[in-house]
Design the sequence.
């Protein structure tokens, strides 16, 4: 078990609620046990220890979601996305009306390749929940997300506050009682965005680890 004294100072400052409890995997690296797909016809498979999502022509947004629900937590993972594909990770999300075929809705942490102009990766979008939760003035494209390579994400959700770091750099620190009140807990969902008739494109996630916080 790691000592808090060994954690980077930035981590301690950004994540004051983290204790010495070790995070646990929510993906076993071999199967999709514990996960269920909602919406869309994109495909998900396991390959080389990663979950691979692949677009499907004409499909709306698709989501591979944990069967377990989470409220306050620290989630870390690595992700690599094909250039030209928009993706994301749902947190504290649910299906509308509680039905398996209901529209997935809730906060989404953006994953996006950006090219020379940069991307909006790491900002928070309200999937079927009113659009961007990150204030418009804060939506500034950046280059902390590495196109065509693995990127590390750290998401800390604690009450009305959500923090996002990409490759060790803080991208979001959003506290909003009103926006997050209706989404206190829910599943983690891996999005494959609809691309119309383009593609196919793929997105890969690995080393998904979660630590529940009090």
Sequence:
């Amino acid at each position: 078990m790691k000592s808090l004294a060994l954690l980077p100072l930035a981590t301690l400052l950004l994540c004051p609620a983290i204790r010495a409890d070790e995070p646990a995997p929510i993906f076993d690296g071999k199967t999709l046990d514990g996960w269920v797909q909602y919406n869309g016809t994109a495909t998900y498979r396991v390959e080389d220890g990663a979950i691979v999502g692949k677009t499907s022509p004409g499909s709306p947004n698709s989501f591979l979601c944990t069967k377990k629900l989470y409220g306050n937590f620290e989630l870390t993972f690595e992700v690599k996305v094909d250039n030209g594909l928009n993706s994301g990770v749902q947190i504290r999300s649910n299906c509308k009306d509680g039905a398996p075929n209901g529209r997935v809705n809730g906060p989404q942490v953006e994953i996006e390749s950006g090219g020379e102009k940069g991307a909006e990766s790491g900002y928070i979008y309200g999937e079927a929940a009113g659009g961007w939760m990150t204030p418009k003035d804060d939506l500034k494209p950046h280059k902390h997300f590495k196109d065509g390579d693995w990127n590390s994400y750290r998401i800390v959700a604690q009450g009305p506050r959500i923090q996002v770091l990409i490759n060790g750099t803080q991208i979001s620190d959003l506290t909003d009682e009103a926006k997050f009140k209706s989404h206190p807990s829910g599943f983690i969902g891996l999005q494959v965005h609809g691309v119309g008739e383009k593609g196919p494109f793929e997105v890969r996630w690995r080393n998904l680890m979660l630590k529940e916080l009090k």
